Amino acid sequence: MRFGIFYEHQLPRPWTEGLEQKLFQDALDQVELADRLGFDNVWEVEHHFLEEYSHSSAPEIFLAACSQRTKQIRLGHGIVLMPPGYNHPARVAERIATLDLVSNGRVEWGTGESSALLELGGYGVPVAEKRNAWREAVEQCANMLAMDPYPGFEGQYFSMPTRNIVPKPVQKPHPPLWVACSNRETIKLAARLGVGALTFAFVDPAEARQWVDDYYRIFKEECVPIGHAVNPNVCMVSSFGLHHDAEVARARFQDGFRFFQFALGWHYGFGEHLPGRTDIWEKFQKALPNMPANAPAEGGIATPEGLREHLRKFEACGVDQVAFIQQGGRNRHEHICEALELFADEVMGEFKAREAERVARKAEALAPYVEAAFKRKQWMAPLADSEIQPVVALGRKIAEEAAARGEAVPEPPRRTVWREAFEAGEAHKAVEGAAEGPK
């Protein structure tokens, strides 16, 4: 398996000056450490207005900073909110491609739609239409990254004319596509569309096997790729907290992970939030005594041997990657770094040793199904050169419209010089063409 670290940038109240800055700087240090230790991925969410649970509203900025402090670790959007109410698809394509360039081709492009009314309502994204808006935006954004030029689109949720979206990414035709999966039905959708499944649900290995089996069965039988490449992979999130003494591991990390779950439930499931005023940490403290002693989802908070057994179960299910939730609640930066180092020293090597062979064996087994999937895809037709409509510069358009009305619009002297030089060059080219005769 591969291993990732996962960030919401949680910040429980009360907030004091400098806490957010420290949160981000600590996270950057942790990512730099994870890169040196050999972790495969860092995943960074996009959320808006979800106080205490997630202060990560601009993941492209954080991941760009990570790109300049690391060499190998892959930079995962976990996820970009794709309905156009949040992000115009062309802006997503531009940001994904730029991050891929500055990171030398290390981007993983996770996508999603959100299920929090604070986000959906804040950006005016209708709940009933968010899934269809996500699907339309993802497909067209993939086309923008891969096509030159993008032919344009008249859709239900956004429209735009023919444009060539630049820059283009290092990874061709585009970085690997993923979608956030919080339930079994979404993982089936991921398989049908040929995208990786980022399973942000805390399931035990027995249920994980069902999810993985569903994914690969549907991928083989029904996949019609939404993008220009497929990414048949399943990533499971897991609790994480490591120490040679299990009691110390629980003392350091258990409450942080429980706050993660409580705040998630508050914003998505059962809470009633007063923006800028609700204290979720206070409410969590009142609920904490009623939590079960050792919930199954806390299996990643353990000794090295305990975590090794936990991960072997996911490996046996066919899970491709496990992403650790190490930053939650008030977990301390130094404890997180110690746990990452202990994992790299005593656990990671066993799984890394089997990875290359596993990936090669899997690629060979899936190759005929990938070929069949692309035969089912209906591609967006590229434009012939004669079909590309010219776009007249605004200054010229204003001048031509004024001339049509019999008005004079003076141009700045420098612009006039360049326009006259261009027109002279075009006229010379036309004369040369006429002298040569028809070809």
Question: What is the topological layout?
Answer:
Elements: E1 2-7, H1 19-37, E2 41-44, H2 59-67, E3 74-81, H3 89-102, E4 107-112, H4 117-123, H5 130-146, E5 153-154, E6 159-160, E7 177-181, H6 184-193, E8 196-199, H7 205-222, E9 234-239, E10 241-242, H8 246-270, H9 280-287, E11 301-302, H10 304-317, E12 321-325, H11 333-346, H12 348-376, H13 394-404, H14 413-436
Task: Provide a short characterization of the protein structure.
Helices cover 50% and strands 12% of the residues. With 439 residues, the protein is α/β, with parallel strands linked by helices. Helix 1 packs parallel to helix 11 (333-346) and helix 3 crosses helix 5.
List keywords for this structure.
439 residues, alpha/beta, TIM Barrel, 2 domains, eight-stranded parallel barrel, two-stranded antiparallel ribbon, 12 strands, globular
How far apart are the termini?
A: 61 Å
Largest sheet: 8 strands, parallel, barrel
CATH classification class of the largest domain: Alpha Beta
Just name the CATH architecture of the largest domain. Answer: Alpha-Beta Barrel
Oligomer: single chain
What is the radius of gyration?
26 Å
Report the sheet-strand fraction.
5-15%
The strand line-up of the biggest sheet is 1-2-3-4-7-8-9-12
| CATH topology group of the largest domain | TIM Barrel
| Alpha-beta content class | alpha/beta
Give the integer mean of the pLDDT values.
Answer: 95
- The number of distinct helices, counting runs of at least 4 residues, comes to 14
Overall morphology? globular
The number of domains is 2
**What's the CATH H-level homologous superfamily of the largest domain?**
Luciferase-like domain
Low-confidence stretches: none
Write down the secondary-structure element order: EHEHEHEHHEEEHEHEEHHEHEHHHH
* Percentage of residues assigned to helices: 40-55%
Total DSSP E strands: 12
